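Following up on my earlier thread - several people asked me to post the actual chain instead of describing it. Fair enough. Here it is, all 295 residues.
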Amino acid sequence: MITHRVRATGVTLAATERGDRARPTVLLIHGYPDTQAVWNPVADRLAADCHVVTYDVRGAGASSAPSSDAAYDLDRLAEDTVAVLDALAPGRAVHVVGHDWGAMQAWHLAVHGRLGARLASLTTMGAPCLDHVGHWLRARLRRGALGPVVGQLARSWYMAVLTAPGLARPLWARVGPRWPALLARVEGLAPADDHPAPTIAADGAHGARLYRRNVVRRLRRPHPAPHVEVPVHLIVCTRDRFVSPRLYDGLDAWAPRLSRTALDAGHWVMRSHPDELAGHVASWIEDVERVSLAV
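Reply from S.P.:
Thanks for posting it. Predicted structure:
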């Protein structure tokens, strides 16, 4: 494992690579309130066959933490991703895998073409595309289908707290020390040396800016016609307490080359089922690479 410091616009990012650069590159993007270390069990397994890149997103772990909400815009996050890949996998096609906010970042990269032809495939779990959510909500409200909307809003209760100015820092000052015990009780995850990160309180407070900057803004004005041409692998965790499987309904309208895999797992699937998840990701990349070579 090799660690790097990568300069991007206004930040320095802590990045890591594993495996042989001659192998297919897979980028793992973590979510909130995690660091890249949440991927360690999966990254170690994938490194046998892939060149694996991870990094702490801005505001998390050992990366810089800007102090303005605007600095956490999805466009800025996309610039960070490109900077990391330019440094660690220059000019190469990349299989992007995202979880939670990392999934929303990955969808944003794909919908807005930020990697161009370098994006080989997309795998997401723990969150859909924010543009899709905006259209999903509008479609159901127009039809009066309030059940799925109310069900998802109940799962997303925490967003009201995180988007409220001034609440995130005192909240995480209290919750941070209790976070390992909360994950153990709610998700059944035993604390490990590398997760949750010791920076969890600061990461939670900084990362709340992701919600304040992006959620209302993107849902109010979603991309008018989101479309993703690359192969997409949607991993649906059927016991996810935060994202209803119904929130993914209709995604194939935006991603015609979409495949779904249902896993009997909770939100932090990379920690609860690392072997199973790594196996699915590795098989997906192998299939995409085989088709690409055939073409």
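The CA atoms of residues 137 and 149 lie 7 Å apart. That should answer part of your original question.
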